[in-house]
Each structure stands twice: as structure tokens, then as C-alpha cells.
Design brief:
about 220 residues, alpha+beta, Jelly Rolls, 2 domains, 4-stranded antiparallel sheet, 5 helices
């Protein structure tokens, strides 16, 4: 008698869902190669059919599509996350996904069934942590929300490529004007030091010095 497959509870956009994880993930060798997207490009749209993807680099925004046609921020994905695995259960994407920075994705699963299961479980654990981080970004003092987003986006070299000011406003639940003011304040305080990154707008790439004064 085979043991039952493990289950997990996924939460996004305020809704909890229960899924069953198959111990034997099918591996489709005909899947396309890695995708490279620039900021602002769509990864996929809610309701569309498609593949699951592993995010290798960059940051992706996930949005809910309301019946009215309006789009509302749901969550974020960072390197190591698996996106779109719900297509294996429901046949279509639950959220719309858009690249906030330059991104590279590879088709998932990309190994044996057992490896795919372990990969998904690791990604789910990371996603739970991310959900808590996203909630924290939408409460508290405005400057603390922006600094929290900067910490989340900063790489190991202490550099960050920020999303557009409007994306930051949507993620942190703040006004566009508030984001612009805080970014300027952080630049003056030398918390954000502008740097040049090829292919990135000059107002979005920085060296980060979080130990500098960030008072508003």
C-alpha cells in the first residue's frame, strides 16, 4: 500500500488553498528553454494555460485580476521560487505575473519526480516566509515599508534594482508621491547611492548603505 501524497496549504491574495503533491511529477522533455525578460514584460496572464517556471534571477510581481477588470497586487516572487505550478492542478494560471526587474526563468520541473517534489516543498517554505514579508511591507511607518522592500530586493553585493515608483507604491500600499519623496530622502542620506547598470534606467539602480542615516 502506497503512502498518501503529502499536502500543503498555499495562501496568496488572502485566500488559502489546499493542494495534493504527487510523488511522481511528470517531466516533459519537450519544454522550451530558459526565458529572459526585461522589466515590465508579462510572464503570463491569469486564466491562460501554460507551464510552471522556476525564477532564477530577478523579481516578479503577482497580481489578482478582479471581475471588474481591475488588477490588484497579490505577492512577489524572488530567485528560487516556482511560479505557475497551479497549472498542473487547475490547467491554468491563478495570477498574472510581470517582471519587475530583468528576470531569467527556466521550465519546471527540470529533474526527476522526487527532485521536483523536494524542489516544490523548498519553494513553498520560502513562499510562506515571503508572504509574511509582503504583509510587513504593507503596514507601519512609510519609510520602514520602503526600507523593507529595499532589503528584500538587495543582492549579496549590496546592490539593488528597484521596480518603478508605481510598483513600489502598489506593493507597500503607499501613494506614488510618498514613494518619490522617500526615495529622494534616502538618496540625500546616502542610503541609496545611484550606480550604472547596463539595461537599467538610471533612477532605479543603487548601491545600498543601510547603515547610513535614513531619517525623514
Amino acid at each position: 500500500m502506497q503512502p498518501s501524497a503529502p499536502a500543503f496549504i498555499g495562501a496568496a491574495g488572502g485566500k488559502a488553498r489546499r493542494f495534493q503533491i504527487s510523488p511522481n511529477f511528470p517531466v516533459d522533455r519537450s519544454k522550451p528553454s530558459a526565458r529572459r525578460l526585461t522589466a515590465g514584460h508579462s510572464v503570463y496572464h491569469a486564466g491562460a494555460q501554460g507551464l510552471a517556471w522556476r525564477l532564477n534571477s530577478g523579481v516578479i510581481r503577482l497580481d489578482n485580476a478582479r471581475s471588474s477588470g481591475e488588477i490588484s497586487f497579490a505577492s512577489l516572487a524572488v530567485p528560487g521560487d516556482i511560479l505557475g505550478c497551479e497549472t498542473m492542478l487547475f490547467g491554468c494560471y491563478t495570477f498574472s505575473a510581470t517582471a519587475l526587474t530583468q528576470c531569467e526563468l527556466s521550465p519546471w520541473p527540470d529533474g526527476t519526480g522526487a527532485m521536483a517534489g523536494e524542489s516544490l516543498l523548498a519553494s513553498l517554505a520560502q513562499a510562506q516566509k515571503r508572504a509574511a514579508e509582503v504583509v510587513a511591507l504593507r503596514g507601519g511607518q512609510a519609510v520602514d515599508r520602503v526600507l523593507g522592500l529595499i532589503r528584500l530586493f538587495t543582492d549579496n553585493a549590496g546592490q539593488v534594482v528597484l521596480p518603478t515608483r508605481q510598483d513600489i507604491a502598489d506593493i507597500t500600499d503607499l501613494r506614488f508621491e510618498t514613494i518619490s519623496r522617500i526615495i529622494k530622502t534616502l538618496e540625500r542620506a546616502k542610503v541609496l547611492l545611484p550606480i550604472k547598470v547596463e539595461g537599467v534606467h538610471a533612477t532605479r539602480s543603487y548601491q545600498v548603505a543601510l547603515n547610513a542615516s535614513a531619517g525623514t
